[in-house]
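FORM 12-B: Structure-to-Sequence Request
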């Protein structure tokens, strides 16, 4: 009898684990479909995203040029001064105006900063093709985000970074993420999704951390524009 009970318990546990794994993949698959579908996302090789950043009563225009999986260049204009950040998977450089503690000349980006920025090379997030990327995903449970049901997924990247992702139970779009980087916890809320060439992008991103609150409003997204990759090379001083 004890043996039979053990077999029954083991079978139930096995079925439960199988169902749990299926639920995770089900949620991720629906999320990918909601974004635009795997084929659409795979067809994106480059992006230009133009945003407006609201901080301390100022509106700061920002333009990011991205070659997916390779490199990104971000430019912001603050009170007539241009700040530039360029990075790939392993290194980066930046230009900071003197008003922001820089010299106005190209300088190497700190390794920790490169690591933090790296996720931007993957514009649709670590859930898309997560197994191929070496990431792991766990279903933590269901929670309320802004009074709406959401699935709480724990994403662990192949590099060991943990990101808590919250997916709306109806739209299957990401509505919030939580991440810890450089000893700081931050939270980003995503809303106002709009489609561009059949792919959805969040038009509003609200980021909160110990440093304060930032709001990014997307004004334009261009998919697969030609990109002169020389813009990623660090200029000589």
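FORM 12-B RESPONSE
SEQUENCE OUT:
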């Amino acid at each position: 009898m004890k043996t039979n009970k053990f077999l029954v318990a083991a079978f139930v546990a096995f079925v439960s684990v199988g169902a749990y794994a299926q639920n995770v993949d089900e949620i991720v698959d629906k999320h990918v479909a909601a974004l635009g579908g795997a084929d659409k996302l795979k067809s994106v090789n480059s992006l230009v995203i133009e945003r407006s950043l609201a901080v301390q009563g100022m509106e700061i225009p920002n333009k990011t040029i991205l070659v997916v999986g390779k490199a990104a260049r971000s430019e912001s204009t603050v009170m007539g001064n241009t700040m530039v950040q360029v990075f790939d998977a392993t290194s980066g450089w930046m230009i900071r105006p003197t008003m922001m503690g820089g010299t106005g000349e190209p300088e190497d980006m700190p390794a920790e900063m490169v690591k933090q920025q790296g996720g931007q090379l993957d514009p649709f997030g670590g859930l898309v093709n997560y197994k191929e990327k070496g990431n792991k995903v766990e279903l933590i449970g269901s929670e309320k985000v802004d009074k709406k049901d959401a699935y709480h997924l724990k994403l662990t990247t192949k590099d060991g970074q943990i990101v808590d992702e919250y997916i709306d139970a109806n739209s299957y779009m990401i509505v919030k993420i939580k991440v810890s980087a450089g000893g700081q916890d931050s939270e980003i809320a995503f809303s106002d999704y709009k489609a561009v060439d059949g792919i959805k992008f969040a038009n509003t991103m609200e980021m909160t951390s110990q440093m304060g609150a930032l709001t990014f409003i997307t004004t334009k997204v261009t998919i697969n524009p030609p990109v002169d990759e020389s813009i990623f090379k660090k200029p000589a001083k």
